[in-house]
Amino acid sequence: MLDPKKLEEIAKQITDSIPPGVKNMAEEVDAKVKQVLQSQLSRLDFVSREEFDVQTQVLMRTRTKLEALEKKVEEIEQKLSEKE
After folding, report:
1. In sequence order, what are the residues at sequence separation of 6 or more whose Cβ sits closer than 8 angstroms to the Cβ of residue 55?
2. What residues have CB less than 8 Å from 47, skipping those under 6 apart?
3. Considering the entire predicted model, what is its pTM?
4. Of 20, 3, 24, 29, which is closest to residue 11 (Cα–Cα)?
5. How far apart are CA 7 and CA 13, in angstroms?
């Protein structure tokens, strides 16, 4: 089995041997990719999690009211059918 400390030491040596220009280029590429992704995602028609949660609560309340109204309509229909 390989010693994890030895592997970390080898990884650090490799990282330290990478020229600073390459490291900077990688950081710049990373930043540019994030910028492009944010730009493209902002163009899509997404809603925030907060807005989604609010709409979910509104839907739940609406569903509860609808069920209550359906029950009332059913009771009224039963009363009307009993009178006939």
Report:
1. 47
2. 55
3. 0.47
4. 3
5. 10
- Please give the distance of CA 82 from its chain centroid, rounded to a whole number: 53
Residue type, 48: S
User: In angstroms, how far is the first alpha carbon of the chain from the final one?
Assistant: 87
Question: Which tokens hold the place of 11?
Answer: 């990884």
- Residue 73 phi, psi (nearest 5): -60, -40
- Tens digits of residue pLDDT in 23-47: 788 888 888 988 888 888 778 887 8
How many other C-beta atoms lie within 10 A of the C-beta of residue 74?
Answer: 10
Question: Residue 69: in which H helix or E strand, if any?
Answer: helix 49-83
Structure-block tokens of residue 16: 């330290």
Token pair for 42 = 């902002």
